Amino acid sequence: MGPPPVTDFDRRRFLSGVAGAALVSGCRWKPDPTKPPLPPGDLGGPDFGHGHRLRSGGIQTPSHEREVGVAIVGAGVAGLGCGWHLARNHRDDFEIFELETVPGGNSRSGRNRTGPYPVGAHYLPIPSADLVPVRQLLSELDVLQGDPAAARPTYHESHVCAAPQERIFAGGRWHEGLIPDSRATSAEREAIDSFHLRMERLKSARGVDGRLAFAFPMRESSRDPVWTDLDKISFKAWMEREGFLGQELSFHADYACRDDYGTKWDETSAWAGIHYFAARRGKAANAEDDAYLTRPEGNSWLIDGLRAPVLDKICTGKLVFRMETESARPFLDTLDVATGTVERIHAKRIVWASPIFELPHVWRDMPDAALKASEGFSHAPWVVANLELSRRPLELPGAEPAWDNVLRDSDALGYVVATHQTPRVIDGPTTFTWYKPCCQQEPVLERSRLLGETRESIAEQVLSELETVHPDIRECCTRLDVWRWGHAMIKPTVGFVWHSAREWFENQNGQILFAHSDLSGMSLFEEALCHGVRAADRILLDKIRQDRNLTNDR
Amino acid sequence: MMRSASGGQRIALLVSVFVVASCGLAYELVAGALSSYLLGDSVTQFSTVIGTYLFAMGIGSWASKHVEGRIADRFVSIEVAIGILGGFTAPFLFWVFSQPGAPFHVCLYLCVMLVGFLVGLEIPLVMRLLERESSFKDLVSQVLSLDYLGSLAVSVLFPLVLAPRLGFVRTGLLFGIFNALVALWAARVFKDRLTSPRSTFAQAFAAIGLLVGGMVFAGDWTNYVESRFYDEEIVHSSSSPYQRVVVTRWRSDVRLYLNGNLQFSSRDEYRYHEALVHPVLSSHPRPSRVLVLGGGDGLAVREILKHPQVRQVTLVDLDPTMTSLFKTHPLLVSLNQGSLANQKVTVVNADAFKWLEDHPDAFDVAIVDFPDPSNYAVGKLYTTTFYRLLERHLAPGGMAAIQTTSPLIARRSFWTVVNTLESVNLHTAPYHALVPSFGEWGFVIATRDTWKAPDTIALATRFVTARSLSTMRDFPPDMDRVATETNRLDNQILVRTYEKEWGPLQ
To answer: In chain A, what residues touch B490 (CB-CB under 8 Å)?
Structure first.
């Protein structure tokens, strides 16, 4: 979330990385005469070119200056959420600066001839009552009907993910659900059952401070070391320690980490791994407890709700390339990427709602503590491919097509179906959105490898993988658009989640405040929105205090 | 050589009589069983096949007197011929049956005649081969007793072991191999009586090879053929992008199968369609506009058109193959009385969900005749979302009647539909009717206010009357209401329940 990221490595490392990747892979894509030509499509992604200008220097001095009350950097979920909450509380002295031409960050969507599709985040688990802002947003969008504080609200049917939700391809056939039960031995099945039972129990576990062990938003979680110490080992180590063994369960746990965090389970903090399973307590009157809200366009409908009250406050195509906060008059320097105009924005308060790794390149008077704290933040690159299909491709035996279709023997996560939420007896043209977190190697290596890929090379990988489950996919794929995310999501690696670095940013409440899912260590819509709203609340609270002081002075 | 046949060889020769006799009966049984399996009416099939077979054997026995000289040669050749003909009769007949329009009966009786004729030749020739060895008295008693013993063995083995374990095709081929082995053995024993032993051996070996090959591929063959036929004569078969449509006829009974599932039998479909259509239409004061969802066979429309107040009928069915078939095929048009070509009727081929979303039209009565919720795709048409959409298309005072699987076999499924309708604030009137080819079948009328049953059904119906309707609305304890969850798009519990209830029976 936040403005689309720019690369965090310097040019030397970048070049050596690309050269290394070219050597290692050694297999540039070449047309294969035995295969039909690749369908057309575009290579998209966050604006790398302008991102790089951050470091190339030579950007001119501002041609004019102006003042705003609050400057929000980044129009992802956190930045928009901050503006949304300010606007709802009758503040209008703020502006949101965004490099991309379209706000929404990871929750943006695209469109082809079959309709809209996600390029990033694509679902939201139904929120528990603790996630007040999320419930409020859903209520404003009329997706949550009735009292937003109800224990079991009613959700709009068209947004609740239709059955069958998931299936997994393993051993030559599709199985319903995410774990191919029929393949597990009875010992494994026992382990799976006791794992789910444990996760169910952990949903209500509390620390000595009386707080939930795994809360949503995560900052409300217990600080009892019994729980926070789980951050010190990997999810894999924890699973093994607890005796949750077996091939299928291991795959499932690893899949969960790659799916939500873009991180393999042996790198993921056990605390974060458990949070995935034990923090979702949402219930509904008309949906299962573990239901998802989803739409063909992914999560961009949520963005539409956040944007609605702040439409005239969003300045897109603006690169924030310089920031000073410690002087008497904090400012941002912004470059209009279309016109090349440079403008200095003086702000009473700045909300940094962008990834943390960008800070060192922008923040002129960055305190040493901040510089040191920012070092621990590491982001996973992702690839997303959208396949426009003229019809449903052939099916292999087993479970019927689901919304989320997982391939057991793959580094990728499988695909979701854009038209799944449109109730039709026979599905016609559709779009498959294929996801892959690049987490087999260090993020830096993965990123440079990804930058070395072309749309064609990625398209070929996607098609040859999906061909194993849909033999005729090349025949019905009429377009294949690839989206590269250099820094898709923060990695909740071992030791990061409860590290003081993360909390350092969270605690800032001076001229600069921070609001981003990076501060949670988990790239989740709920976390991003809560950070945005929390920053807005602090600004609102200060205003109330000022007003009160003024009144008292009089 | 036989002039001084040893006792061992003599016993071996008599064993071959036993084998030959078993084979003869086996072919007869395979043909009889196969024709009753394919054509039904087993009494007729067995009688005619056995009669023809015995008659042909008689001709063969009679003709055996014309076989002069080189008896050993002839015997071996006949054994080879029986092995091949008898062995391949079953796979051949299967194939003929699967070919639409092929003359199955002609082929059946031709095969039976030929094999019977050759088998009829067999025993007299064996007796003549052996006649030099024994007195006529001994010969007749031994050969005939072994002949009957062989028949007994096969007639016991066939229904208990052979047919169920090997199937008709492999059983036939197996006995073909036995016949060919007898030929081989006879060729060896009578080597010095053969004019050209080498070519005779070659014949026998070739036959064995062919039959063993047949055994190896019998499975594939049966699968191939069996996938192509049903119990009855196929009147029409086609595949649309949506389903496989097969219409069969056996005597006066016409049946429609979609993807192998029976949709109606012309013997009792009037019970189903009268029960689906007349209670709801007769209870509406002015049923002018009627919507039919599914029901591309036009049989519900046929019943709807019996109501003079109906001015327009809109039928929405996904599959154009279905509606055009039931508009044009003479046999099927005679069943639905040309309802789909009626001026009042508009046929639309569309996805019911999409059509209801795209069209604002309101109807006095909606007849919902979808296939049972056996998969998630069809299951969507039984959800709260669908019923809300349906309700929006009911005019003031409008009503819907919905076919709802069997409340006896699938009790939970039936009441899940009722509870789902009630969860979207519709009033329901569930009822059931006996449709013999389906079993006890369920229906639900859904209305915005409490439904009032009609005082009379003022039509010449064969099944539903106002009086019988009151018993149809009573649910005895074995079908009585059960509490269930509501069926929504996100849980599709009906599909799971239905699978659980019907699965063991399918």
So the answer is: 157, 160-163, 165, 287-288, 291
